[in-house]
Amino acid sequence: MTTVFIISAPSGSGKSTLVDELRKQVSGLDFSVSYTTRHPRGSEQNGREYFFVSRDEFEEMIWKNEFLEYAQVYCKDYYGTARRFLRQAQDNGHDLLLDIDVQGAAQVKQRIPQAPSIFVLPPDRKTLEWRLKNRGSDSEEERRRRLDTARREIENYDKYDYILVNDRLEPSVDQLKAIVLSERMRHSGRPLSAEDQAAHAIAEQCRLSKVRDRVRPILDSFRDQQGQH
Ligand code: ADP
Ligand code: 5GP
Q1: DSSP H or E run through 218
Q2: Which of 49, 127, 135, 138 to mutate to test the pocket of ligand 1 (most atoms within 8 A of CB)?
Q3: Ligand 2: residue whose CA is nearest its atom 10
Q4: Report field, pTM of the whole predicted structure over 0.90
Q5: Which residue, of 73, 91, 168, 210, has the greatest Cβ tally within 10 A?
Q6: Could you read off the pLDDT of 146-155 as tens digits, one per residue?
């Protein structure tokens, strides 16, 4: 049975970096390449990071009911997951990872309630700002908009099953991998090895109920600096 994993994060939190590492380390996990009306950034290639389409093309896909979910992100561009990626993963007996925003995550959860969802948080607002700047792919205005959206998106963290605070990269990759493996074990029904149990324990530490105290100062760092640029 295909497990659909949802991963969301404010832009710049390091989600793409984490997902790239995860895909190197875990097999049988397909990645859905989304459709978007935004323009390619830097070295992005059509069909690799996204399928870059016009507004007309996107709206035609909506009309033909080709999306599992779609949303307008930053009140501007459309982003959507084509249903065909789920069909392909099911045909291949693979799991599927969806990198989508909070609006898309809510739509998928409604359709597939058992889909495990993961929210990646930066350690604090300053770090997020620094990472966005360091990535060097957005204009000042674009970064400002991403930070503003981040403040709003972060408030939705408690709608997710797992929270991953991406502080140091290596432990964060280990946590993400543990969540995926732990969810797979749950469906496998086989006895757990010592290694499985260790992964399960790491994943459990990322459960929403376990991280509320860790998340509070992160939320505060965004609320305190609201409006300060
Ligand atoms: P997102 O996909 O969430 O928008 P990226 O993966 O593009 O974010 O990461 C934003 C920037 O932060 C990149 O320059 C990336 O190399 C860097 N980065 C990601 N994770 C970490 C981390 N744990 N520590 C330091 N820098 C990181
Ligand atoms: P970016 O422009 O930085 O690549 O992505 C902006 C936001 O759009 C991110 O939060 C990303 O998760 C989200 N996103 C990417 N693809 C999809 C998608 O197919 N559906 C939805 N709802 N959001 C998406």
Answers
A1: helix 208-224
A2: 135
A3: 101
A4: yes
A5: 73
A6: 898 899 999 9
